[in-house]
Design goal:
The structure is a homodimer of 183-residue chains. With 183 residues, chain A is an all-alpha fold. The first copy, chain A, has helices at 5-18, 24-31, 35-41, 45-67, 74-85, 89-101, 110-127, 137-156, 165-177. At the A-B interface, helix 6, helix 8 and helix 9 of A face helix 6, helix 8 and helix 9 of B. The structure holds a DNA duplex (30 and 30 nucleotides).
Chain lengths: 183, 183
DNA sequence: AGCATACGAGACACGAACGTCTCATCGATT
DNA sequence: AATCGATGAGACGTTCGTGTCTCGTATGCT
């Protein structure tokens, strides 16, 4: 009956991904515990969201590790990143919109590190001559996030087949980032 | 002092674009009227959001008209669409996230028409041989929305220069959509 | 068996935002 | 000048989510 704190975070992420406005009570019910117990684990909604932010960063970090961003062809590495990050899309979208509500400047510093890892991948591709240099790594990173979440929503709404999601995302992203001579 | 209903909608759109959680009172203050008067124009928050949805659709429609989506080279038409829609990015992002909270199925039917107009442009490009056919028009439409809003956020956060916004968006989108032989 | 810890259920107060209403005032029209 | 309509200010009740608390119970450990 009693859940590990980590599992608790997992189900909270699930519920809030489905409906970002879910109340503490709904989250507790979904986890099979009472609201009181949820409060015993997390002081309040803020604390829970902060913990979820940590979880998201850990998961994304793990995804980047699994994608081996520093190995092999940069384009292939991007493909692996998209494939690894795709299951996290909905959850990350929740965190982003949640961050949007906070005051600017107090965002979790962990995001910068993640951004830097992805941007470094694009920069490597530019240095190796695979990616065009007239699009900045920062923009390509932003576009990667945007396309992954867009693909997740499109799948959820039935506008894109789930099995095509990763391919569509990667093809559009790489097609834009790849230099013409590499095609 | 007294505002036209249309101007009222405009400032409401502005305020909610900046902070999607703004209260009715904040919206009224920003428009220079009282909460009571705001309620005289719009029965409630729901009604206001619906009216804003209409406004967004009208603006986007006008943007597509101005972009002359059915004229000339499809790639150039896409460029014009992005340029025309870019100023609407923040506002549209608000509407999308607001729609996300509604129950599925009760979304404004106007969106389908807009989607169809943009998808038709991509389909035309495919028929004319300018765009690759392994990415569906529906996905390219989705990607267009996603990249425009991503660019707006990136500009707002200082990660992309405002004057590069349209170019970066178009280059990435077209680079991905354009067939390799067209490069 | 005894005890400690964690849990569920529920009650309570607080705050925020909403929707409704009243009333006084201001301005424009006639 | 008189009147009508729209407005601003504010009070009021309601709803919803939150955070805190208590109390009875169950689970698990010694």
């Amino acid at each position: 009956m009693s859940l590990d704190r980590e599992e608790l975070l997992g189900t909270a992420a699930e519920v809030l991904t489905r409906r970002p406005t879910s109340s503490m009570d709904e989250i507790a019910r979904a986890a099979g515990i009472s609201r009181a117990t949820l409060h015993r684990h997390f002081a309040g909604r803020d604390a829970l969201v902060r913990a979820l932010e940590d979880l998201g960063l850990r998961r994304l970090d793990a995804a980047l590790d699994a994608a081996r961003t520093e190995e092999g062809d940069a384009a292939e590495a991007v493909r692996r990143v998209v494939a690894q990050a795709e299951p996290l899309a909905g959850f990350l979208a929740f965190l982003v919109t949640e961050n949007q509500l906070f005051e600017p400047g107090e965002q979790h510093p962990g995001w910068e590190r993640i951004d830097a890892r992805i941007a470094a991948l694009f920069r490597r591709g530019q240095d190796e001559g695979t990616f065009r240099i007239d699009l900045t790594p920062a923009w390509l990173t932003e576009a990667l996030y945007a396309l992954i979440t867009a693909a997740a929503w499109a799948v959820q709404d039935g506008r894109v087949a789930a099995r095509d999601s990763v391919r569509m995302t990667v093809e559009l992203l790489l097609g834009g980032a790849r230099r013409s001579m590499e095609r």
